[in-house]
């Protein structure tokens, strides 16, 4: 059974998923995930139906080989609590279990916008990132050129237009970043289901 703890830091509540066969004092890769607008609140029941949590809880996901951190936004957007979010990122990065060479980000929609900004604020902390249906300050992409990216978007997305992903990808490539872009031709806003259902994407994140 997956070990899960509910924690709080600087007013941000988060779920901490432990790796299977956890060994104390061992260093593990970490995924720091920022959810989209639909999971805002003060109750983790808002996470119900999350494809990522379901994948981890099955116990056979590559994500089960490390720690996974799922903070919950209790305000309107992540940017309303951005300084506290940065402090939480640094707190997790400095935990004894963190393999600092494999500290990774993951974001969905609103969470992807916040994650891009977190990484541009703390670029030296992150190794890889999975970005779903989000965008960011593409003109500042040079700050995150040393982070490896897999970026995903649905061509039919009318909530966050796919041009957001294309702009970020183009500027990252201009900065010589290691970045891949996948546009799902028939997909709308929910590009996270095919992305996190793909074993290879999860395996890549922790490699």
Description:
- The chain is of the alpha/beta class.
- The chain is built from 6 helices and 8 strands.
- Strands 1-2-4-3-5-6-7-8 form an 8-stranded mixed β-sheet, sandwiched between helices.
- The protein has helices spanning 51-57, 82-93, 110-121, 163-174, 192-196, 199-206, and strands at 4-9, 12-17, 28-34, 67-71, 98-108, 128-132, 148-154, 179-184.
- The chain has one domain (4-206): Rossmann fold.
Total count of strands:
8
Strand order of the largest sheet: 1-2-4-3-5-6-7-8
- Whole-number radius of gyration? 16 Å
Total individual domains: 1
Key attributes of the depicted protein:
single chain, 207 residues, alpha/beta, Rossmann fold, 8-stranded mixed sheet, 6 helices, 27% helix
Briefly summarize what is shown.
With 207 residues, the protein is α/β, with parallel strands linked by helices.
Topology readout:
Layout: E1 4-9, E2 12-17, E3 28-34, H1 51-57, E4 67-71, H2 82-93, E5 98-108, H3 110-121, E6 128-132, E7 148-154, H4 163-174, E8 179-184, H5 192-196, H6 199-206
Parallel strand pairs: 3-4, 3-5, 5-6, 6-7, 7-8
Antiparallel strand pairs: 1-2, 2-4
């Amino acid at each position: 059974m997956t070990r899960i703890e509910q924690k709080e830091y600087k007013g941000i509540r988060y779920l901490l998923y432990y790796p299977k066969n956890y060994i104390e004092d061992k260093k593990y890769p970490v995924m720091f995930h920022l959810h989209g607008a639909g999971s805002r609140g003060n109750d983790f029941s808002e996470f119900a139906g999350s494809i990522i949590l379901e994948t981890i809880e099955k116990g056979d996901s590559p994500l089960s080989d490390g720690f996974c951190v799922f903070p919950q936004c209790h305000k309107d957007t992540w940017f309303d609590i951005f300084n506290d979010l940065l402090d939480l990122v640094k707190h997790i990065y400095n935990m004894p279990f963190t393999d600092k060479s494999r500290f990774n980000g993951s974001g969905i929609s609103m969470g992807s916008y916040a994650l891009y900004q977190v990484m541009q604020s703390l670029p030296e902390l992150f190794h890889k990132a999975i970005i779903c249906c989000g965008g960011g300050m593409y003109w500042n992409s040079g700050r995150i050129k040393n982070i490896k990216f897999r970026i995903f978007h649905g061509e039919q997305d009318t909530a966050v237009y796919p041009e957001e992903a294309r702009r970020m990808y183009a500027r990252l490539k201009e900065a010589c970043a290691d970045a891949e872009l996948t546009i799902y031709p028939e997909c709308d806003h929910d590009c996270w289901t095919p992305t996190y259902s793909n074993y290879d994407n999860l395996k890549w994140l922790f490699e």
